[in-house]
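Recap quiz, item 2
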Amino acid sequence: MSDTSANAASVPANMLSILACPSCKGKLVWNNDKTELVCRGEQLAYPVSNGIPALLASAARELSVAELEQLKS
Ligand SMILES: [Zn+2]
């Protein structure tokens, strides 16, 4: 077991480019801190587990103002 380069928690850039918010079809932003995909327009975050996004309205959570401001930096 010497290969530790794979990061199961990240979403590849090429995958990000084809993902869209299931609600508004907007672009999603990767939040590496929380391993979530964020829809800035609706201020929603979708969880990602083992590199697989749960793009379901029922899985999304609302972001707080503080979290949104962190994403802007
Ligand atoms: Zn959206």
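The longest helix spans residues 65-72.
The pocket of zinc ion is lined by residues 21, 23-24, 26, 39, 41-42, 44 (CB under 6 Å).
End of item.
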